[in-house]
């Protein structure tokens, strides 16, 4: 290799992103990439080559997709967990880890029959318990209203804690006539709603429980008494409950960037549960308890990931917004790719930060 080729190769390496490994012809192009990519230590990362991926779907494609990186694929096939995508020390360690990593399904058929008999209804919430949960999962099941039955009406709601215990469960009487009970998927019959809790009463109980004595305007993610709310598609559930809750307290598995598709669209709860927890949901009649358990397990898996602790981890933090001024072209172009990555911050709230509360 002649001197000129050697210099060009060195320049190309210098213009290579330290996170996603994209290469650029010019340093200023790399700087612009770093400004808009929001790479950080909170992104899913390949355990072999350390490449940062925007989502776990992207990481899965990198490891076992149609066009994987061959070296990473070979190592992952021997030592990689197919659920959390972690690389273990040996194939035996992988076997032991994967057995623990895979969850078993809740018996949705049994819980549905119990609920139909009223055996799992829990319309009272113990607000004063010393073991009162700080994080809860919520799920609703909808029946149909309107002339064609396409309008979603909340007819059943369940709240569970981190240990899969039922905190609140009740059938809900919609405020308008039901024209389709959607029994094949909801398991709900007219008799279940005849003496059910009115929507306004369920709304009030849930709101009081979530706020836990704090006024809405005072609720904040850290240091307060209000509860973190976990679910899948919570915008829709809360809308059907006619309930407002601060977005800073919501952990939605349908909108969390690491759990979304590479196209940035939401994955279904059925897919997420099968891919990351190792069991099936929504087989036959759907139970809100089953959904609560699945979303809480997904949240817990994301929450307890080990990432580097940073004083100001978000690009939106005031300290980092002022830091954006530091991305002055002339100064940053003198940095190495690793130095650029060290000052880059995430554009989403990583759930691992909940463990620091």
From TrEMBL:
InterPro entries: REX4_DEDDh_dom, REXO1/3/4-like, Ribonucl_H, RNaseH-like_sf, RNaseH_sf, Znf_C2H2_type. Residues 15-44 form the C2H2-type domain. It comes from the Eukaryota. The keyword ATP-binding does not apply. Keywords: Exonuclease, Hydrolase, Metal-binding, Nuclease, Nucleus, Zinc, Zinc-finger. One of its GO terms (molecular function) is 3'-5' exonuclease activity. One of its GO terms (biological process) is rRNA processing. CDD domains: REX4_like. It is found in: Nucleus. The keyword Nuclease applies. GO terms for cellular component: nucleus. SUPFAM superfamilies: Ribonuclease H-like (SSF53098). Pfam families: RNase_T. Belongs to the REXO4 family. This is RNA exonuclease 4. It comes from Arabis nemorensis.
């Amino acid at each position: 290799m002649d001197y000129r080729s050697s210099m060009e190769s060195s320049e190309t390496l210098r213009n290579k992103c330290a996170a996603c490994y994209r290469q650029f012809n010019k340093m200023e192009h790399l700087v612009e990439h770093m400004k808009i990519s929001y790479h950080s230590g909170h992104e899913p990362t390949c355990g072999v080559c350390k490449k940062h991926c925007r989502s776990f779907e992207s990481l899965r494609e990198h490891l076992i997709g149609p066009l994987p990186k061959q070296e990473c694929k070979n190592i992952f096939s021997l030592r990689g967990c197919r659920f959390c995508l972690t690389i273990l020390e040996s194939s035996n360690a992988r076997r032991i880890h994967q057995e623990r990593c895979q969850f078993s399904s809740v018996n949705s058929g049994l819980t549905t029959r119990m609920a139909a008999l009223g055996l799992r209804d829990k319309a009272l919430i113990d607000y004063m318990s010393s073991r009162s949960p700080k994080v809860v999962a919520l799920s609703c099941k909808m029946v149909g209203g309107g002339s064609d039955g396409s309008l979603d009406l909340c007819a059943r709601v369940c709240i569970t804690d981190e240990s899969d215990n039922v905190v609140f469960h009740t059938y809900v009487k919609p405020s308008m006539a039901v024209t389709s009970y959607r029994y094949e998927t909801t398991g709900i019959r007219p008799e279940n709603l005849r003496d059910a809790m009115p929507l306004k009463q369920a709304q009030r109980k849930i709101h009081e429980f979530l706020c836990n004595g704090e006024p809405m305007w005072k609720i904040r993610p850290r240091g307060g008494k209000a509860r973190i709310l976990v679910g899948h598609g919570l915008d829709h559930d809360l809308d059907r409950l006619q309930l407002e809750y601060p977005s800073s307290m919501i952990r939605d598995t349908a909108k969390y960037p690491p759990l979304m598709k590479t196209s940035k669209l939401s994955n279904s709860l059925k897919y997420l549960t099968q891919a990351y927890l190792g069991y099936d949901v929504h087989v036959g009649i759907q139970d809100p308890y089953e959904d609560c358990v699945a979303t809480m397990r997904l949240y817990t898996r994301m929450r307890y990931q080990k990432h580097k602790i940073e004083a100001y981890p978000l690009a939106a933090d005031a300290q980092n917004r002022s830091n954006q001024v530091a991305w002055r072209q002339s100064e940053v172009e003198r940095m190495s790719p690793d130095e650029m990555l060290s000052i880059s911050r995430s554009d989403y709230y990583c759930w691992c930060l909940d463990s620091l509360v």
